[in-house]
Amino acid sequence: MEPLPVVPAPRVPDQRPAHLRLLPDGVDRRPPWLTVRLPAGEGYTRLKGIMRGLELNTVCEEARCPNIGECWGQGTATFMILGDVCTRACAFCAVRSGRRGGDVDADEPRRVGEAVARMRLRHAVVTSVDRDDLPDFGAGLFAETIRAIRAASPGTTVEVLTPDFNGSEDSLRTVMDEAPEIFNHNVETVGRLYRRVRPRADLLQSLRLLQAGKRMEPRSRTKSGLMLGLGESLDEVRELLTMMRAHDVEIVTIGQYLRPSLKHHPLVRFVPPEEFDELREFGVRLGFEHVESGPLVRSSYHAADQAGSAPVAAAGG
């Protein structure tokens, strides 16, 4: 008698949100140190209700952040102003892109301020899409949003995570005149990979923007972040960290790149926690005031802890 044919079990579709699914890179599964909980809980639901009720965007959702469940559950979030369409198309980013970002919503700063007050945040993070289609690249709305947050919630510290404003010092000054507690602009990756990863950006321009921001407003703390797993070497990362410190960057975040889709830059490797630990220690030796380094770290992760004169953070997710 011939053996019965082996019938493979039917494949069950992955029902989890896109940013939590198994990566489509030929990698069977994420390593255990990249395990995250599904977003849920009363705090998460309440914050989502506030955001939808005020018609606000968050980078937590648009960029598919793996920490959305933890951060939203604790009542913290990063507001994304100036719409949800970016005029650049960086190879790592899940945010939608287009030539124009749509009309500027003049009432958006007021609604952000109201949300901050209703959430009783002690630290608010404000970022945006790139708006190369605007004369001031969006700097004016950043300034208005800072003022609106302080009017609605005077005790809240403010962090801005801005685009590069195409290197415009006038646009930068518009933001720095409001003296945000933290001025953040991410360099994202090492210079060798910019042409593929950030084709419309320039590493030196980003570093000079950070240094210029510090010189314009010395009371603001400068911050930047980068991702690992795009194809960089550890020596290149160490060189980049040294350049960042030389350009007066005081706070740095280092996390694992997670590919949003097959259309985005390939994931080259999962970086083990030990390498994040090594880079954290290297950053401490360079003199950074605060180093947040770990596989699940993102630019706004533990941002409230970085707003004051907090000690250097241990590696974490």
Description of the molecule:
The protein is an alpha/beta fold. It has one domain: Alpha-Beta Barrel (TIM Barrel), CATH 3.20.20.70. The chain contains 11 helices and 10 strands. The strands form 2 sheets. It has an 8-stranded mixed β-sheet. Helix 9 (234-246) links the parallel strand 8 (221-228) and strand 9. Helix 5 (139-152) packs parallel to helix 6 (169-176) and helix 6 crosses helix 8. The N and C termini lie far apart (56 Å).
How would you summarize this macromolecular structure in one to three sentences?
The chain has eleven helices and ten strands.
What keywords describe this structure?
317 residues; alpha/beta; TIM Barrel; 8-stranded mixed β-sheet; two-stranded parallel sheet; 11 helices; 33% helix; 13% strand
How are strands sequenced across the largest beta sheet? 1-2-5-6-7-8-9-10
SSE succession: HEHHEEEHEHEHEHHEHEHEH
Assembly type of the shown chains? single chain
Helix content: 25-40%
Residue windows where pLDDT falls under 50 for at least 5 positions: 6-28, 309-317
Mean pLDDT: 82
Cα-atom radius of gyration:
20 Å
CATH architect. name: Alpha-Beta Barrel
CATH topology: TIM Barrel
Percent of residues in β-strands = 5-15%
Quickly count the helices. Answer: 11
State the shape.
globular
- The structural domain count equals 1
CATH C-level: Alpha Beta
CATH superfamily: Aldolase class I
Q: What is the number of strand segments?
A: 10
